[in-house]
């Protein structure tokens, strides 16, 4: 009875309801904190920056909040290797930055960063953390696969894919998609960039190839080679001329690589200089010359790194003078330039380069059979067979336009930028910048200038060949297109190399940060020049970039050397250990970039010289390692203990000469021994062992043949013995 009464009451109340019951959702309060952190974090490696913002209930920034966070989970601040409490907020913002110069590092220690987790409005953000060994995997795979399969394109693609898979949380398919639509494509279009430097490099590389194509097809290259042949009758002369031209084009490494390689390639081909040797000559006089030239596009960057670091340490002075004082401490680029001259002048080689030179002399194979030729205009165009008239001006006009307009363009863009900066400095009450050659080059736009000048030079080549009636206009345009198309493979390698560098940069796998954290330790200041050289060499080799290596290591190395000199009361800006450290960073960055298969200057040198890229890298590394070893043993080690570089530089040069004289051998003599022994090109190229043992056996067999007691020995038996 009671249950029936209760049911009637419920039914009556429902029938009496005049309006539906509205659903009132629970309103979730916004988080108190907004956390901005890198998407990818390497375990036990400091991150560049973490920003925490305090928010109001409406989501706006709470500028009145200037307190300490009560509790932060997953974030640590270390100053001078000591775990330190986080500072308070400032106007609602807490910025935690890693500063290697001040030995301040920010670590993310868990997969989730939480601020005040015990409060209802706590803030949190998830981060993806990976092992530091995984960050070393892409560049390591690129080098191993390149040597194993002897195919640089396959090695670079696999390296990018592996890095993309790591960044995609191990998803193989998503890594493949990101390889193409993120890393490769972004290197071309550069989303968010206003300079479009990569596209400019791609375009001026194509335009330079177009210029060379028209010069070759129009007979200008053949005429230039014929004229140069009057002054250089030996292979050594052609190599010395290439070295000298590399010294003349000192203002930019890109211009040096492309101009010197493409200009000297037909001439060195006639002299039977292998493409690997030409690429070595070009690559060794590009970045080294630009890096030590007192006036170049590199100077401003190098001085800027020195000035910023010195200013952060409270040291004032003339930073350009410090830059000049550090030049004698650049042992590697200085001794490399001298070594290149010795190799070109003496004519001795060793290692894989000796085999490449012997192949070119004995069998006329400038490129190893079966290898990619990354920049080659059609064979008939190379000798000017298309041309009705072979005129020297068909080569000199485009080259003069390229060099002349490049210098004018650098001056023009640099002057405009200086005038703009001076207007801002006047408004701020600062001293105006002087319009001199150094400042102009420092503030110029070399990529934009090279883009425009290479296009105009290619048009000048078309006009010259057309007006001189060396080629009809239609054939000039066809040669222009063929020359541009010949650079496709080089551009593909260049884009893939950029993509590998992006995968390894600070925003992704942070490979350079891992190497710095693993290899940098506090030692005696006497060892700092050597340590910085070796560290810079490893970082630049892994990343393929000398500029990013300098930007990363200059603050760290200079600050570390400074901190070691302060207790000794020797913290002078121009102290020999400070200068040795600066020279070690800048020289080591060039050395690693010089050897790295993913370096843009290495790719461009291969392209301009018409060499297979991997063959260029493998033949160049023994020479680079030789010079680096001499630079360490007779440069950075003794200079750390007080020896003057003016004494060490000649000593290193003598050591390099002795290495070439006693260890190197003449490729012409080796080629003669092979031919006299009856070794065919197929037999020579089928050998997989090092060239030195082969050459020794060839020479010994030749001597045995000449002294043999059995004059009836057949040529087949002679080849079998070899």
TrEMBL record:
Location relative to the cell: Cell membrane
Spans through the membrane: 130-149, 155-177, 198-220, 240-259, 280-307, 327-346, 395-414, 449-467, 479-501, 527-547, 621-639, 645-663
Region ranges (Disordered): 682-722
Recorded topology in the membrane: Multi-pass membrane protein
Pfam family, one: Na_H_antiporter
Principal location: membrane
Keywords, sorted A to Z: Cell membrane, Membrane, Transmembrane, Transmembrane helix
Domain Na+/H+ antiporter NhaC-like C-terminal residues, every copy: 295-636
Any one GO CC term of the record: plasma membrane
Matching InterPro entries: Na/H_Antiport_NhaC-like_C
Residue stretches of biased makeup (Acidic residues): 691-722
PANTHER family in alphabetical order: NA+/H+ ANTIPORTER-RELATED, NA+_H+ ANTIPORTER NHAC-LIKE C-TERMINAL DOMAIN-CONTAINING PROTEIN
Protein name stated in the entry: Malate-2H(+)/Na(+)-lactate antiporter
Gene source species: Gimesia chilikensis
């Amino acid at each position: 009875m009671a249950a029936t009464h209760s049911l009637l009451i419920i039914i009556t109340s429902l029938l009496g309801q005049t309006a539906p019951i509205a659903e009132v959702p629970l309103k979730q309060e916004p988080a108190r904190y907004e956390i901005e952190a890198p998407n990818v974090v390497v375990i036990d490696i400091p991150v560049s920056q973490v920003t925490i913002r305090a928010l109001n209930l409406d989501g706006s920034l709470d500028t009145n909040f200037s307190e300490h966070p009560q509790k932060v989970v997953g974030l640590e601040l270390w100053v001078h290797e000591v775990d330190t409490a986080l500072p308070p907020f400032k106007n609602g913002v807490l910025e935690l930055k890693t500063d290697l110069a001040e030995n301040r590092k920010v670590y993310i220690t868990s997969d989730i960063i939480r601020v005040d987790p015990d409060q209802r409005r706590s803030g949190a953000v998830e981060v993806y953390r990976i092992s530091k060994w995984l960050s070393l995997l892409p560049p390591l795979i690129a080098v191993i696969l390149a040597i194993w399969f002897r195919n640089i394109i396959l090695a670079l693609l696999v390296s990018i894919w592996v890095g993309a898979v790591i960044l995609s949380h191990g998803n193989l398919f998503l890594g493949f998609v990101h390889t193409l639509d993120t890393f490769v494509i972004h290197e071309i279009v550069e989303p968010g960039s206003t300079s479009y430097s990569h596209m400019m490099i791609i375009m001026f590389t194509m335009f330079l190839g177009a210029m060379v194509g028209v010069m070759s097809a129009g007979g200008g290259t053949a005429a230039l080679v014929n004229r140069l042949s009057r002054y250089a009758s030996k292979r050594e002369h052609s190599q010395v001329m290439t070295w000298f031209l590399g010294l003349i084009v000192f203002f930019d490494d890109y211009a040096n690589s492309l101009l010197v390689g493409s200009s000297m390639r037909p001439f060195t081909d006639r002299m039977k200089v292998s493409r690997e040797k030409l690429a070595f000559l070009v690559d060794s006089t590009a970045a080294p010359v630009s890096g030590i030239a007192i006036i170049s596009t590199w100077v401003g960057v190098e001085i800027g790194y020195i000035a910023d670091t010195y200013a952060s340490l409270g040291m004032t002075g003339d930073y350009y003078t410090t830059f000049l004082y550090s030049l004698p401490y650049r042992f590697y680029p200085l001794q490399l330039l001298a070594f290149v001259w010795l190799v070109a002048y003496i004519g001795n080689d060793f290692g894989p380069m000796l085999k490449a030179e012997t192949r070119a002399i004995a069998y006329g194979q400038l490129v190893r059979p079966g290898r990619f030729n990354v920049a080659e205009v059609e064979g008939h165009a190379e000798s000017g067979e298309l041309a009705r008239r072979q005129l020297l001006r068909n080569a000199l006009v485009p080259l003069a336009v390229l060099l002349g307009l490049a210098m004018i363009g650098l001056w023009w863009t640099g002057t405009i930028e200086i005038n703009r900066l001076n207007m801002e400095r006047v408004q701020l009450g600062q001293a105006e910048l002087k319009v001199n050659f150094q400042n102009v080059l420092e503030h110029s736009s070399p990529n934009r200038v090279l883009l425009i000048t290479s296009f105009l030079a290619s048009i000048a080549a078309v006009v010259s060949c057309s007006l001189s009636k060396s080629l009809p206009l239609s054939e000039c345009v066809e040669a222009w297109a063929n020359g541009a198309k010949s650079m496709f493979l080089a551009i593909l390698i260049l884009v893939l190399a950029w993509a590998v560098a992006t995968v390894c940069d600070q925003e992704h796998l942070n490979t350079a940060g891992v190497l710095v954290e693993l290899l940098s330790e506090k030692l005696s200041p006497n060892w700092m020049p050597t340590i910085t050289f070796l560290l810079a060499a490893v970082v630049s080799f892994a990343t393929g970039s000398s500029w990013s290596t300098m930007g990363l290591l200059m603050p760290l190395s200079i600050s570390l050397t400074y901190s070691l000199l302060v207790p000794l009361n020797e913290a002078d800006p121009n102290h020999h250990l400070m200068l040795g450290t600066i020279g070690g960073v800048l020289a080591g960055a060039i050395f690693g970039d010089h050897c790295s298969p993913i370096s843009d200057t290495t790719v461009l040198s291969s392209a301009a010289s018409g060499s297979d890229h991997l063959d260029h890298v493998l033949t160049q590394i023994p020479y680079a390692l030789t010079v680096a070893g001499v630079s360490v043993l007779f440069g950075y080690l003794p200079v750390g203990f007080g020896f003057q570089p003016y004494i060490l530089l000649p000593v290193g040069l003598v050591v390099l000469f002795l290495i070439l004289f006693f260890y190197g051998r003449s490729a012409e003599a080796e080629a003669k021994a092979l031919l006299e022994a009856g070794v065919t090109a197929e037999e020579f190229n089928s050998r997989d062992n090092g060239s030195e043992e082969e050459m020794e056996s060839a020479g010994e067999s030749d001597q045995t043949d000449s002294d043999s007691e059995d004059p009836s020995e057949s040529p087949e038996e002679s080849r079998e013995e070899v």
